Amino acid sequence: MHIRSSDVGERLGTVDVAGAVADLWFAWVGDHAGDVERFSRDHLSDNERARLGTYRSRDAAERYVVTRSLVRIVLGDRLGIPAREIGVSRTDTGKPVVAEGVHFNVSHSGDLVLLALSDTRAIGVDVERRRDVARVESLTQRWLTDDERRDLQRLRATGVTESEAFLRVWSLKEARLKALGVGIAGAFAARVHSVDALPLDSLLDSLLGQHYDQGYVGAVAFA
Fold it and tell me: With bands split at pLDDT 50, 70 and 90, how would you rate the model's confidence at 100?
């Protein structure tokens, strides 16, 4: 699979979780601030271009166009379909899907957009920019399961900061929920720890210094 240099996105790598394989792609929103009009015209569907007109924030509009363009270009190359013609729909819980049998999921944080594709299983991906997280204790008590709290404490015991530990555990949780097609509101009813997941920290560390010196953490999961 090859994306032309004039378009958006680069391949980050491939991961294997319990025999399920995911291809990972990324794009930096800021690299394409001057390409929004062209990307919108060349890659987005009519409905997506109409939605673009509802954004009042320039930053949000740029992120939307780059994200949707990355999804459509990579899926188009994988399926042999022009990017604008790919039919993307949503499940009852709002997860984007395509009818052609390729599973995909996308996440963004800061300036980074991350896309994961799998031919075999439903997939979820999450990326989080490293940062100081306010009220970690209250977030932990409200949103994390007992297992996730133990995971956080194990990370803290290795010397990882409180914010970093929370972001790592949170990214795994988000990836699992997205693989299941469940929002955070349904998290406690979901069997989150039954979902195979893998941290992406080492792959994301390869991007360190490109745009944010503090880097990113993330995870991919298969339902």
Answer: confident
Tell me the per-residue pLDDT of 142-199, one tens digit each, with 9 for 90 and over. Answer: 999 999 999 999 999 999 999 999 999 999 999 999 999 886 665 555 677 778 999 9
**Contact assessment for residue 95 and residue 103, using Cβ atoms and an 8 Å cutoff:** no
Q: How many CA atoms lie within 13 A of 140 on its CB side?
A: 21
Q: Which amino acid is at 53?
A: G
Laid out side by side, the sheet with 216-222 consists of 123-129, 216-222, 196-199
Strands 10-17, 20-28: parallel, antiparallel or unpaired by DSSP? antiparallel
| CB crowding 57-89: b at 16 or more within 10 Å, else e | eeeebbbbbbbbbbbbbbbbbbeeeebeebebe
Residue ranges of E strands in 56-151: 88-90, 96-98, 103-109, 112-118, 123-129
Q: What is the C-alpha to C-alpha distance for residues 8 and 3, in angstroms, rounded to an integer? A: 8
Amino acid letter, residue 155: L
